[in-house]
Each structure stands twice: as C-alpha cells, then as structure tokens.
C-alpha cells in the first residue's frame, strides 16, 4: 500500500527505498509490487530503470504476469519507444506469453498516435479469433485513429462492425464519430448517431451537446430531427456505471 502511494504521488525514490528495505529484511516482493513500481517508473520516464528492475525481478525468481507485459507495452509507447514496444510484443507472441486485449489496445493506441495507422489496423485485424475479442476500448482507439487520419468512412464501418459483434459503443466512441462527421460537414450523420445513442441509452457529453447547439444555431439541423434524452435515462446510465 505504501509503495503504491509513493508511486501515485510520483515519489518513486521513496517507493524504491521501501522495496530495497523489503529485500534487506528477507521479504520477497511479489509481481503486484513490481508492477506498481514499473508503472511508477514509466510515468516519470525512467525506462532504463524499469528494465533494470525487470531483470532483478527475474533473477529473484518472480514470474511476470499478463499485467506486467501490458505495463511494458503501454509504458514504452507512452515514452516514445514505439519500435521497441512492437519488438517486445512480437517477442512475447513468439514465446506464446499470455497477452490480453488491454495489451493489444495499448499497442494499437501507441501505433495510431505515432502515425503508424496501417500497422495499427493490421494488428487490430490480427486479433486471435476465438481467443481475444476487441472490446469498446480497442474499437474506440481504432476509430479515433481513423478519425485523426480523416478516414471517416472506415471509422463508420468499424462502428458498424462493433454492432455486428455485439460490442456496445460508449460516449467516447460516439463523440469521435460525431466530431469527425462535423469536420467533413455531414450533419445528417450526426443526427443518425444521436438517434443511435438514444437507442443505446448513451447520454451525450458536453462536447456533443455543444456541437448540437452550434448546428441548431446555424440552422443546419432542426429541433424536430433530434431525439430527446431524459433525466431518467441519465440516472439509469449512472446507476449501471456504479454497479460496474
């Protein structure tokens, strides 16, 4: 708990001192503690120290878990080590290490943000069938990557693919698509998506509301064309999120 607190406050030296103290007292830190330290190190851009700690963990006989791999893939991407992250990912797959959908999502996100959209799409479509299923986070990342590249037709196709695979879109998914269609001046698509949001009980956020108000002010859409979102629906959404 103390190590986690230090890491959350970006006081990594305090966390590492506690870690060293545990070792000196013969207490063997488990993989959860190591994972916490890895996150802390990557957050303050200490990539080399993260790898050094990983080597120490292996020497101490502590096995990495799926979470460890995800942390490294994500940490490398967020620190600009995209090529290294891809190499690590490929090595892990060759070694048949267990990777979850979060690991794929982190790498896809890193690839999209570094302008490697085609590689991201290739990875997205290479998800092991019957083993891993893309979730709303994975889809939303990929849709956002396509949106950033101006490929709204492909982004919308991916949205339809979500529906076919029974993956429920969230407000982030809808927001990305709505912003994209506004950018290419397709208000009819915005109305279509708003009705889809209503159908799926997804409440618009402030940025979506702002877009709708702007369209109304410019007379690009009519009030009668819009669905109505009730307070009751919003409460149901809040309740569902609290249960999760």
TrEMBL record:
The lineage of its organism: Eukaryota, Viridiplantae, Streptophyta, Embryophyta, Tracheophyta. This is Pentacotripeptide-repeat region of PRORP domain-containing protein. The keyword Repeat applies. PPR repeats lie at residues 1-29, 30-64, 65-99, 100-134, 135-169, 170-204. Keywords: Repeat. NCBIfam families: PPR (TIGR00756). It holds the Pfam family PPR_2. InterPro entries: PPR_rpt, TPR-like_helical_dom_sf. It comes from Citrus sinensis (Sweet orange).
């Amino acid at each position: 708990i103390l190590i986690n607190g230090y890491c959350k406050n970006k006081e990594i030296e305090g966390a590492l001192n506690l870690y060293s103290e545990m070792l000196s007292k013969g207490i063997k830190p488990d993989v959860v503690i190591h994972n916490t330290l890895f996150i802390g190190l990557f957050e303050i851009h200490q990539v080399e120290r993260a790898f050094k700690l990983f080597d120490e963990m292996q020497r101490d006989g502590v096995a990495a878990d799926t979470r460890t791999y995800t942390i490294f893939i994500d940490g490398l991407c967020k620190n600009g080590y995209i090529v290294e992250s891809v190499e690590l990912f490929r090595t892990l797959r060759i070694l048949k290490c267990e990777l979850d959908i979060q690991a794929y999502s982190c790498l896809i996100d890193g690839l999209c943000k570094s302008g490697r959209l085609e590689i991201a799409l290739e990875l997205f479509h290479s998800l092991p069938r019957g083993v891993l299923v893309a979730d709303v986070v994975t889809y939303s990342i990929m849709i956002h990557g396509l949106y950033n590249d101006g490929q709204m037709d492909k982004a919308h196709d991916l949205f339809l693919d979500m529906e076919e695979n029974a993956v429920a879109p969230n407000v982030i998914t809808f927001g990305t698509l709505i912003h994209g269609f506004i950018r290419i001046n397709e208000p009819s698509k915005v109305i279509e998506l708003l009705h889809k949001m209503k159908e799926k009980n997804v409440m618009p956020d402030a940025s979506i509301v702002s877009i709708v108000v702007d369209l109304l002010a410019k007379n690009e859409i009519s009030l009668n064309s819009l669905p109505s979102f009730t307070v009751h629906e919003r409460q149901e959404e809040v309740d569902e999120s609290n249960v999760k």
